[in-house]
Design a protein that fits this description.
The chain is an alpha/beta fold. The chain has helices at 30-38, 57-61, 70-76, 110-119, 140-158, 187-198, 210-219, 231-238, 315-336, 338-344, 346-351, 362-368, 375-380; strands at residues 12-15, 42-46, 66-68, 79-81, 99-102, 122-125, 179-183, 202-207, 225-228, 243-246, 272-275, 296-299, 302-305, 352-355, 358-359. α5 (140-158) packs across α6 (187-198) and α9 crosses α10.
Amino acid sequence: MSRVGYRPAAMRIGVAKEIKAREYRVALTPAGALELVQRGHEVIIEETAGVGSGFADEAYIAVGARTAGVDEVWEAAELLIKVKEPVESEYPRLREGLVLFTYLHIAADEPLTRALVDSGITGIAYETVETADRRLPLLAPMSEVAGRLAPQMGAWSLEKAHGGRGILLGGVPGVPPAKVVVLGGGVVGYNAALIAVGMEADVWVLDKSVERMRDLEMMLNGRITLAMSNRLTIEEILVDADMVIGAVLVPGAVAPKLVTRDMLSLMRPGAVLVDVAIDQGGCFETSHATTHDDPVFEVDGIVHYCVANMPGAVPVTSTKALTNVTLPYVEAIANKGFRAAVDEDAALAKGVNVVGGKITYAAVAEAHGMSHASLENALAVV
């Protein structure tokens, strides 16, 4: 029996079940559902959506949400929240009048971009919500998870049975540790370096900002080697790198290709590339997205780990971390309505990628050679 009494719903909020391969996360915890229900909103959870993250349907029902089939969730919702971008089988469910709030990463996905535009849906991307001080609050927790997973999965890939060189990351007394190179010193890069250091690897971090490198030196107590990121330095460091973690990000845009196919010839056979930027097209020229079922492939003797939803491997941690940061924005949209919410919050406004058939995020339009409209102009004709 629900412990929350009936209250008129201000907005119908749907929570879709993720259907991407091996994706166990869900966009809302029961605790988050309770917060919304207490404010009078109707929360509709797709049946079994939370099971992979440890939340049975009964846990949502107990806090006043209700469960329903996939068709009802998509059709009834005014605001639909997800974790991952819609896959092709979900494109027919996109519709005018629906606000979709999820990770979109559409700069690297032209078919999805066109599906969103053609549908007339309002698409808000977690990854482009950006504060005045350039923080990406909804991307940060998944970047932390992916960064901390990267050395772990890279170490697995380095094992001989998985195609790697057969190197133990931390070495043993008398045998040197693996050399781990992290390209990018942002949230992903810092967390990757933190775990790699903890695994006693020889860790190098390359970044373009001297100020950021000073910060990293203090944050990691001088336990890493720092170097300026440029093509020549990358080429020199690849020669004896056992693992390279790609951790670069240009918000909302396609990731720069920092390691070309020609550069693979500089590396030792069985070395590993872990591309954490694969959702944005990847920062290695030879990368393509893989799944948890088939996570690695080899190009020119170099092992690539390019799973596009790395945090999905640890859904209990990831779901809780994601709801912690998304819930205030979900509440703002539900309480105020979409237009008022973006009018009052410039960070949320930057998350809007598509409105009424218009692309409102410049980097997305540029990536696909499509036209761009300001959010103000796009809203004026909706």
